[in-house]
Amino acid sequence: MPLRLQDQLNRYLTDAHSIEKQALAHLRTAPDIAGDPELATAFSRHLTETEAHERMVRELLVERGAKPSRLKDAVMSVGGKGFVLFARLQPDTPGKLVAHSLSYEALELASYEQLARVADRAGEPHVSGVARQILDEERRMMHQLEDNFDRSTAASLAAEAESPRERLRKYLADAHAIEEQGIELLERAPDLTDGALADVYAEHLAETRQHAILVAARLEGLGGDISTLKDTALRMGAMNWSAIFQTHPDTAAKLAAFTFAFEHLEIGGYEQLRRVAGRAGDRDTAALAERILLEERAAANRIAEHFDEALTATLDELLTT
After folding, report:
1. Calpha distance 3→27 (Å, rounded)
2. Domain check: are 151 and 268 in the same one?
């Protein structure tokens, strides 16, 4: 029997609630490891907003005779705590925190974009109104994080004892590892969707492979080498994500949201690399970071332009099978 649009709306609400639970687990610790008073204030303010978001989504579910998924909420909460532990173990904690937070806000933005559109199609203006209210606050937090890249980079560098050259090698190695993860994800993406969005993934895969080559060459020029262990770990992570997408009934929409978020993880990383290179007086690395940043931002914009296409493909499949 086809899945009714109202049932699908409940599923999107359940997913949104789980995402908010993960955000809460992350944000409750973020102010303590931000490394900068203004950043800490921004995280604290958004924690209050996120608590309200979780309550609003939960209330929407209750109004509709549904309820949050305890299993999804528990898994996502553990994931949020795991990220905080990861950030704490990094020597550049403030930078990692802001880059990953930007990515997570992008995931929330994409998820609420899709939720609002499902609600519109289901004739539920109250739900779409709440989704867009939350969406606006997620977008505002993204802008705040972008406005504070200088602060997060300064806080990271203040906590590190390496020479400028060694710092650059470390940031380039991180960038290469993320590009390898992106390659693994994008190699599978065209097989999980079709239409214009599949072309976007294929085009950016070619760009991403070139990014990995350029970053590796620049790292070698500075006397460093790629971190095989880190690259392998991140590639395995991308393989696991593709397996998760294949088990979801709404693969195309989920994949679009996640790749949009992943592009913002890369944006955060290259914004910091650009600043570290500038402080070290390395114009070549700064220029490379700026070049790649332009392509990552363009890719994120192209993916966002096709959110509706991905959602339509998902709903067409779910409502006719």
Report:
1. 35
2. no
pLDDT of residue 252: 85
Is the whole-model pTM more than 0.90?
A: no
Terminal-to-terminal C-alpha distance of the chain: 7
Question: Which residue is listed with tokens 């949104």?
Answer: 16
Asked if residue 215 and residue 121 are part of one domain, the reply reads no
pLDDT digits (tens, 9 = 90+) for 150-187: 999 999 888 777 777 888 888 898 899 889 889 988 98
* 243: exposed, middle or buried (Cβ count in 10 Å: 0-12, 13-18, 19+): exposed
Phi, psi of 227 (to 5 degrees): -90, 105
My answer on whether 183 and 248 are in the same domain is yes
Question: What type of residue sits at position 141?
Answer: M
Angle between helices 251-280 and 164-188 in degrees, nearest 10: 160
| pLDDT tens track for 107-135 | 999 999 999 999 999 999 999 999 999 99
Report yes or no: 184 and 177 within 8 Å, Cβ to Cβ.
no
Give the domain CATH number at 157.
Answer: 1.20.1260.10
Kindly write down the DSSP assignment for every residue of 35-53, as one continuous string: SSHHHHHHHHHHHHHHHHH
Domains of the chain: total: 2
Residue 321 tokens, joined? 């099978």
Q: How many CB atoms lie within 10 A of CB 133?
A: 14
**Are 51 and 114 members of one domain?**
yes
Domain ranges, residue 153? 1-161
**Residue where a domain stops, chosen among 161, 184, 217:** 161
Of 161, 180, 212, the one marking the end of a domain is 161
